[in-house]
Amino acid sequence: MLFHVRMNVNLPPEMPAAEATALKTKEKEIAQGLQSSGKWRHLWRIAGQYANISIFDVESVDELHTAISTLPLFPYMQIEVMPLCRHPSSVRGDDS
Ligand SMILES: O=C(O)C[C@H]1C=CC(=O)O1
Question: What protein family does this chain belong to (predicted)?
Answer without folding.
Answer: Belongs to the muconolactone Delta-isomerase family.
